[in-house]
Design goal:
The complex is a heterodimer. Chain A is 74% helix and 2% strand. Chain A contains eleven helices and two strands. In chain A, strand 1 and strand 2 form a beta hairpin. The radius of gyration of chain A is 18 Å and the shape is globular. Chain B is 75% helix and 1% strand. At the A-B interface, helix 4, helix 9 and helix 11 of A face helix 4, helix 10 and helix 12 of B.
Chain lengths: 287, 301
C-alpha cells in the first residue's frame, strides 16, 4: 500500500516536470502544425543556460528558470526563422525532419563546449520529508511548485492577453483568424518562442531534479511526445493532463517492470492511446 | 589502406540497403520511419541468435527478414490509419525500445557487451584479405539486386499505386486502390530490407552491440535519401555511398583541426551531419537525382 502511494506521489512529481516541455511542444504543434523534434535541443539549451547562471553567478532556481526560458525561446526563434520556416511549403514532414537535424546540431554545439560530463546545479542539499511513510524530496516539491507557476503563467497568457487570444484563434481556425486581421507569421514566431522557452524551462526543472548533459533533452523527448499525444496533440490542457497521466503510468509500471524500461512506458502509452482513442484524452481533432 | 577502402565500400553497401528501405517507405509511400535503426538492429540480432543456435547463415538471413517484417507490421499496423506525423513519433519510440531491450535483456542479447563470435562465412576459407574482397563484392551485388528490383517495382503498378497513396490517399481510395494494404506491403518490404542490412552487417562484423544501432544511423540514412533524391532507388544508393564517404572524410578533416579534444571532434562531425541535412533540404530538396514524374498523357480533343 505504501509502495503504491509512494509511486503515485513520485508519478505526480515527475509528471509535473514533463508537463512544462510537453506544453511547449504542443503549443508549437497547435500553431505550426508540425511535430518539433528540435524541442529536445531547446530543453538541453535551456538546461545549460540555467545551469550556467546558477553555477557562475549563484542565481537561485527561479532566476535560472527565467534564464532558461529566454535562452530556449531565443534559440527556438532563431532556428525557426533561420532554418525551419522556409521549408514550410514542402510540408509538415519535411519540417519535422529538418527539426531532427536542428536538434542534432544544438546537441553537438553543447557537447562541443561542455563535453559529455554530467553536471549538477549548485543547490543546498535538503533531507527528504517523510509524511506517513512516504518520502518526498524537498527539491522535488519546489520543482512541482515551479512547474505549477510556469504552467499557470502560460494559461494566464493564453486566456487574458491579446497575443494569447490570437494564438488560440489561429490554433482553432487559421483561415478565420487571418480574415480577422491576425498576422499568422507573427503568431507563429510568438508560439515558437513560447514553446521553445517552455522547453528550456523544463530543461532546468529536469536538471534540478537530477543532473544535465547534452542528451538531457533527447532522453525526455519520447516522454514529451507521449504526454502530448496522450492529452491530444495541440491541446495545452491536454498536455498537462497527459504528462501527469504518463508520470503516474511510468511510476506505477516500475512496480512490475525494471526501472530501465521507463522510457518504453511512454511508447506503449502512445501505441495504446492511438489505437483506442487517437484524439487523446482531451483532444478534439481526429486523424 | 586497401582493406580500409573495402571496409568503407561494404559499410556503404549496408547503408545503401537501409537507404533503399527508407526510400521505399518514405519516398514512394510517404511513410516516415524514424525507427530504421531499430529494424536494422532486429535483423542483426535475429540472425546472430539464429546462427548462434546452429542454424545455417542463409536461414539466419531469412529469419532476420521475417523478424523485421513482423516488427514492422506490429508497430505500424495500428497507426497507419492516422496522420503521418503520428507514425514518425511511434517509429521513433520503436527504435528506442529495440535498443532498450538489447541493452537490458542480458540473457538474450548479452546487454551492453553485445554478441561476439557471430558466424562470418568465408573468413576461415578465404583469409582476412579474401574475406574483405568477397564481402565487398557480395554486399555490392546484393545492393545492385535490391535496387534493380525496387526500381522495377517503382516503375510498375505497385509503385504508381503507392505514389497515388502518398499524394492523396482519399483520392487513391476513391480510385479503388486498397490504401491500407498498399501501405502495409510497403512497410513490410521496407522492414525486410532494413533487417537484411542488419543481418549482413552482423555477419560481416561478427560482433554487434546496442551501440551499433544508435538513432544517429537513422539520421545518416535520412541524409542519404534526401541528398540522393527522394523517390529514386538509384538516388538512395548514390546518397548512401556519398554519406559514408562524407563521414569518413570528416574523420580526417576533424583530426586536422588543432587543439581540440576527441569529444569535440565527435561533436563537430555530428553537427556537420545535421548541418548537411539542413543544407540539402534548403538548397536541393529533391536531391541529386530528382524523382521522375511522367507527364500526364495528353487528352485528344
Amino acid at each position: 500500500m505504501e509502495a503504491l502511494l509512494q509511486a503515485l506521489v513520485n508519478g505526480l512529481l515527475s509528471g509535473s516536470l514533463i508537463a512544462v516541455p510537453a506544453v511547449g511542444f504542443t503549443a508549437i504543434f497547435a500553431i505550426l502544425r508540425y511535430p518539433s523534434f528540435a524541442i529536445a535541443g531547446y530543453v538541453s539549451v535551456g538546461a545549460f543556460a540555467g545551469w550556467w547562471v546558477n553555477t557562475r553567478f549563484g542565481f537561485g532556481a527561479p532566476l535560472a528558470l527565467l534564464a532558461a526560458f529566454v535562452a530556449g525561446g531565443l534559440t527556438g526563434l532563431v532556428c525557426e526563422q533561420g532554418l525551419l520556416r522556409r521549408l514550410m511549403p514542402s510540408g509538415a514532414l519535411t519540417v519535422a525532419i529538418a527539426s531532427i537535424a536542428v536538434n542534432l546540431v544544438l546537441e553537438n554545439v553543447l557537447r562541443f563546449f561542455f563535453g559529455n560530463d554530467l553536471r549538477g546545479f549548485d543547490l543546498p542539499i535538503r533531507p527528504d520529508l517523510i509524511l506517513g511513510g512516504i518520502f518526498i524530496g524537498v527539491q522535488q516539491l519546489w520543482n512541482l511548485l515551479l512547474a505549477v507557476v510556469v504552467v499557470g503563467a502560460v494559461f494566464g497568457f493564453l486566456m487574458f492577453t491579446r497575443f494569447g487570444r490570437a494564438m488560440r484563434a489561429v490554433a482553432d481556425n487559421p483561415d478565420l483568424a487571418r480574415l480577422k486581421g491576425i498576422d499568422p507569421a507573427r503568431i507563429a514566431a510568438i508560439a515558437v518562442m513560447l514553446g521553445a522557452g517552455l522547453a528550456g524551462a523544463g530543461g532546468v526543472l529536469l536538471g534540478l531534479d537530477t543532473s544535465i548533459d547534452p542528451m538531457t533533452g533527447y532522453r525526455v523527448l519520447l516522454s514529451v511526445f507521449a504526454a502530448a499525444v496522450l492529452g491530444g496533440l495541440g491541446s495545452i490542457p491536454g498536455a498537462v493532463v497527459g504528462a501527469l497521466a504518463l508520470g503516474l503510468a511510468e511510476e506505477l509500471s516500475l512496480l512490475v517492470v525494471p526501472a530501465t524500461y521507463r522510457t518504453a512506458v511512454g511508447f506503449v502509452a502512445i501505441l495504446l492511446i492511438l489505437t483506442f482513442r487517437p484524439r487523446g484524452l482531451l483532444g478534439e481533432r481526429a486523424a | 589502406m586497401l582493406s580500409y577502402l573495402l571496409f568503407s565500400i561494404t559499410i556503404g553497401g549496408v547503408y545503401a540497403l537501409l537507404a533503399l528501405a527508407l526510400n521505399l517507405a518514405w519516398g514512394s509511400a510517404g511513410l516516415v520511419n524514424l525507427g530504421l535503426a531499430g529494424f536494422f538492429g532486429i535483423g542483426a540480432y535475429a540472425t546472430a541468435l539464429a546462427t548462434g543456435a546452429g542454424l545455417p547463415v542463409a536461414l539466419g538471413l531469412g529469419i532476420a527478414m521475417l523478424a523485421g517484417v513482423l516488427a514492422g507490421l506490429m508497430v505500424t499496423g495500428m497507426t497507419l490509419r492516422l496522420r503521418d506525423d503520428y507514425l514518425a513519433i511511434v517509429t521513433l519510440g520503436f527504435g528506442e525500445v529495440v535498443r532498450l531491450v538489447a541493452l537490458n535483456e542480458r540473457w538474450l542479447t548479452n546487454g551492453a557487451d553485445g554478441l561476439s563470435g557471430i558466424a562470418a562465412p568465408g573468413k576461415a576459407a578465404l583469409g582476412t584479405a579474401g574475406f574483405n574482397w568477397a564481402w565487398c563484392i557480395g554486399v555490392s551485388l546484393v545492393v545492385l539486386l535490391v535496387a534493380l528490383l525496387l526500381r522495377r517495382l517503382d516503375a510498375g503498378p505497385f509503385g504508381r499505386a503507392l505514389r497515388a497513396v502518398r499524394e492523396d490517399q482519399e483520392l487513391a481510395a476513391f480510385a479503388g486502390k486498397p490504401v491500407l494494404r498498399l501501405k502495409l506491403q510497403a512497410v513490410a518490404l521496407s522492414a525486410a530490407i532494413a533487417a537484411l542490412a542488419g543481418a549482413l552487417y552482423a555477419h560481416y562484423q561478427s560482433y554487434i552491440s546496442p551501440d551499433h544501432f544508435q538513432p544517429l544511423i537513422t539520421i545518416y540514412i535520412f541524409l542519404a535519401v534526401t541528398a540522393g533524391g527522394l523517390g529514386r532507388p538509384l538516388g538512395a544508393v548514390l546518397g548512401a555511398y556519398a554519406v559514408v564517404a562524407f563521414l569518413e572524410g570528416t574523420r580526417f578533416l576533424a583530426a586536422e583541426v588543432p587543439g581540440i579534444e576527441p569529444v569535440q571532434v565527435a561533436a563537430l562531425r555530428e553537427a556537420l551531419v545535421g548541418l548537411s541535412l539542413l543544407l540539402v533540404l534548403h538548397l536541393r530538396p529533391r536531391g541529386v537525382l530528382p524523382e521522375r514524374i511522367p507527364a500526364a498523357p495528353k487528352v485528344s480533343a
